[in-house]
Design brief:
Length: about 140
């Protein structure tokens, strides 16, 4: 029961923290005058046997806007993980062009840890972190 309460509280903190912390756009990029932001759908994902209660992937979303806040299409966004993680984690696809001002890639990992995720537009880079944890094993008490 204590584990369940702790998970519920952790979930509330993550949800409320995500609502209060909208990503700040960076830029403008050199000479182009646009800004972009990086956000991940889940900051914690789980490694192990599939279970619909525990996400095993996260989506990285880049939003590119011009000086008036309008979405920009056709911008190339490069997604990557830190070099030390390339054999354990990935973002697919690694290169995406914006559509309706957005570019998306799916993050997946083969082991646990905190993985720095990077998005680059032109010469500007943003980073987010995704924590990969081992999926909790159900107890014999029916949790």
């Amino acid at each position: 029961m204590a584990r369940r309460i702790a998970l519920v509280l952790l979930g509330l903190v993550l949800i409320l923290g995500g609502i209060a912390c909208a990503p700040k756009p960076v830029g403008p990029t050199a000479g182009a005058g646009y800004v972009f932001s990086l956000q991940v759908s889940d900051t914690i994902i789980f490694f192990g046997l599939p279970d619909p209660r525990y996400p095993q992937t996260a989506e990285a979303v880049v939003r590119v806007r011009d000086a008036q806040g309008q979405p920009i299409d056709g911008m190339t966004v490069l997604f990557s993980v830190t070099p030390s993680w390339t054999q354990y984690a990935s973002l697919t696809p690694a290169e995406v062009r914006t559509r309706n001002g957005e570019a998306r890639a799916v993050f997946a990992a083969k082991t646990t840890g905190v993985v720095p995720v990077t998005a680059r537009v032109d010469n500007v880079t943003l980073e987010a972190a995704i924590t990969v944890e081992r999926r909790p094993v159900p107890s014999d008490a029916g949790e």
